[in-house]
């Protein structure tokens, strides 16, 4: 249901997404947290949220804090979040139960702990109540808070996320005879084969220019 890309790194494989319960899941980010600048999250399109629901997005850095980044929904299927290097020790979960769920996960005692990108499926009004103003107001760029905010413009990154999803769907369509819809079943190993093919093209071409040909 979810895909995640860290700026400058390969697409995270499906195996990096761990489901905690029916409404909570998280990506383990296998990179030093201090090197993460931007995170792109997108819906793969195979499963939709129930009406009136979406997913709040949380960044948890063991030993450093916890922040609500924003959200994705059926109406907003992708988003790009900026993670500032000045991420504070006093981050909060904005009143969400997600902090309690994800706070007990992760290697806080490790010398180089891995960060988590937590996803909590919640009613849209509950999600909106959690998101700090600095995450939704582009004019608030001079704020001195340690909030994690989206960059002022996400148009290009949104197009990139859409092209990645289309590339995935085109690849999977080759194994389903072009059939689409909620009842089409695709083996999980097909996602791993796509991931290996996708990253192989990036290494071979030295970039993602091949996505320009995706329709």
Your description of this structure?
The structure is a single chain. The chain has 215 residues and is an alpha+beta fold. Helices cover 27% and strands 25% of the residues. The protein contains 5 helices and 8 strands; from the N terminus they run βββββββαβαααα. It has helices at 98-103, 124-130, 133-136, 155-176, 188-205; strands at residues 2-6, 17-21, 24-29, 38-43, 53-61, 65-73, 78-82, 115-123. The chain has a 5-stranded antiparallel beta sheet. Strands 1-4-7 form a 3-stranded antiparallel beta sheet, with helices on one face. A hairpin with a 3-residue loop joins strand 5 and strand 6. The longest helix has 22 residues, at 155-176. It is globular, with a radius of gyration of 17 Å. Mean pLDDT is 74; it is low at 86-95 and 136-153.
Task: Let me know the largest β-sheet.
Answer: 5 strands, antiparallel
Pattern of helices and strands? EEEEEEEHEHHHH
Q: Reading side by side through the largest sheet, how are the strands ordered?
A: 2-3-8-5-6
Low-confidence stretches: 86-95, 136-153
Measured between the Cα atoms of the first and last residue, the distance is 21 Å
Count of DSSP H/I helices: 5
According to DSSP, the number of beta strands is: 8
Task: State the secondary-structure class.
Answer: alpha+beta
- Described by the principal axes of the CA atoms, the overall outline is globular
Strand content: 25-35%
Approximate helicity band = 25-40%
How confident overall, as mean pLDDT? 74
How big is the Rg? 17 Å
